[in-house]
Amino acid sequence: MPARRVVTGRSQQPRKRFAEELRLLRNGRGESLRELAERLGWDASTLGKMESGTNLGSPEVVEALDTHYGTPGLLLALWEVAMGDNSQFKEQYRRYMDLEAEALSLWHYGVSTVHGLLQTAEYAREVLTLGGLKGPELDQQVEARTGRRKLLEGEDAPPFRAIVSEAVLRTPLRMPQEWREQLEYLLEVCERPNVTLQVLPLCAGLHGLVSTDMMFLRLPDGVTVAYAETAHRGELVEEIRAVELLLRRYDAMRDQALSPAESRKFIMRMLEEVPCEPST
């Protein structure tokens, strides 16, 4: 039996199909992006990015579009399928890297590992090895990751605030000396005028960003975007209301963190606890 032909003429790629459906519905109404934004109360640039496929938006805006177009559940279903399209993850990360390079300031919270901008080569190698890399590809990725640290160097380096969970500092590398060097590097980096490092103690308890590594980037046009990363995926968040909500959660968590001076002392205590290498 011959393969079934696709006769709708619409894309079969989830992300493209979702964007295409948004454009078709709006054009069918004869609305401009500006008119749609005014009627929904959402940002026109966000709606435009959703129609171009560069941003999936949030479930709230998708539900609002479903209501506006009289398509209950249709767009939300397409959105959920598009969110599960793994082929977009690497594309989003590449875009995130481009935005990171042009950011005027950066705020980070790390719950699982030391952020890449603060990693030693040995730390990066162990993390990437556990992720399945090996051979020449591993060497290339370690070099690329450590090369990113130059972003925080020099007179024009952007301000960078990093809040690191105590759990990260209690998860050492396998080799004590390499772990010692990572802690020493954190102490070295936080001496730079553009870097602020804080530790969130475990006793602070639960908070709004629990289990999520988060980076906020303030861009030259004044817009702030967020990148949320879990163990298996990352998502670039650009919708204004969603970013503002995450920022409020970040600010609340920062109030629970140790001061920079207290955080430095905490890392120094952790350093003292690293066992010495056995003498040979």
UniProtKB/TrEMBL annotation:
Residue ranges of every copy of the HTH cro/C1-type domain listed in the record: 22-75
PROSITE patterns, A to Z: HTH_CROC1 (PS50943)
Record SUPFAM superfamilies: lambda repressor-like DNA-binding domains (SSF47413)
The protein's name in its UniProt record: Transcriptional regulator with XRE-family HTH domain
Pfam families: DUF5753, HTH_31
Superkingdom, natural source: Bacteria
CDD domains: HTH_XRE
Family annotation (SMART domains): HTH_XRE (SM00530)
